[in-house]
Amino acid sequence: MSKETENPTIVFVTGNKMKLREVKAILGNEYEVVNHKYDLPEIQGSTDEVTIEKCRTAAEIVKGPVIVEDTWLGFNAMNGLPGAYIKWFYQSIGCEGLYKMLAGFEDKGAVAGCTFGYCEGPGHPVQLFRGEVDGTIVSPTGEETFGWNPVFKPNGFEQTYAEMDDDVKNSISHRYKACMKLRDFLQEKARQK
Ligand SMILES: O=c1[nH]c(=O)c2ncn([C@@H]3O[C@H](COP(=O)(O)OP(=O)(O)OP(=O)(O)O)[C@@H](O)[C@H]3O)c2[nH]1
Ligand SMILES: [Mg+2]
Q1: For 108-141, how does the pLDDT look when each residue is reduced to its tens digit (9 = 90+)?
Q2: What pTM was estimated for this model as a whole?
Q3: Ligand 1 binding pocket mutation candidate from 33, 148, 173 (most atoms within 8 A of CB)
Q4: Angle formed at CA 147 by CA 27 and CA 76, multiple of 5 degrees
Q5: Which CATH architecture has domain 9-192?
Q6: ipTM of the complex in this document
């Protein structure tokens, strides 16, 4: 009988249990995703800058290889805002407020995205892996179990993220796309060892 090989471990530093759940669902067959729960400070800047700083800090805390992730939601009519600041907009005005923000605009287009950062340890550079999905902002539809899922309808689908089965969201989402790039990178790195 062949001995099952153990999956390699990834330490994901995040304070967001829904992100963790999705990353486990997406990468769980290939990696043991271990959470280090910590709400990392977030600087003002581009999503790349935010992710790099989060990842550097995470590597210092864990003192070893880590991943972090930063999510954004950008409205086309607002040149990509709120972007990385979506968390504060969502917390202040909720899904209904996000929908109403575009009331004065014809263009309801939006991009949902996230960037994973990987860092091998303190002092090492941060590698970035980005995933994006184009969609539209709609009146909140579906259960509000994860952030702004009820207002984001990806192009080519009839349902918002919130209405989709988890399996469907996790096979098409911004997080899925970024995770696949991260996985390819980690696999290539492992092959080179
Ligand atoms: O509807 C959603 N579908 C998603 O797929 C999704 N991913 C993240 N979010 C929310 O968008 C903000 C990002 O902020 P964020 O990246 O700084 O996350 P966070 O602070 O919660 O966790 P972390 O920084 O500790 O990892 C936070 O409000 C998250 O809850 C999502 N909402
Ligand atoms: Mg955060």
Answers
A1: 999 999 999 999 999 999 999 999 999 999 999 9
A2: 0.96
A3: 148
A4: 95
A5: Alpha-Beta Complex (3.90)
A6: 0.98
